[in-house]
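User: Fold this; tokens only.

Assistant: Input:
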Amino acid sequence: MTSPQPPTRADLARFIADPRTLRAFENLFAQVPGGFEELTARLSDVEAVGALAGDLASAAKSDAATIARALQDLANAIATQRGQQSTIAALERRLSDLEALVLTGD
């Protein structure tokens, strides 16, 4: 971005015809000589903050995706464990039935 410069007398004269008004504007710009530089610095700060906010938003989105994948992996592991527990319980019941058959001789 280019730094804005205070308007010259010729710039002001293009849209201000009255010499007194022109002089008043020149005086105004003379009273605030660092105004444009300060404005430029603040504008640069705002641009930097905007860029940082964009970077942080991107990082947060990436982190959220990583967390979502980790939660899905955890859910899958829990489901697998529950499935294994269910299978173990079914096998234990079957073993118990077989033991009962052996003991009773039926």
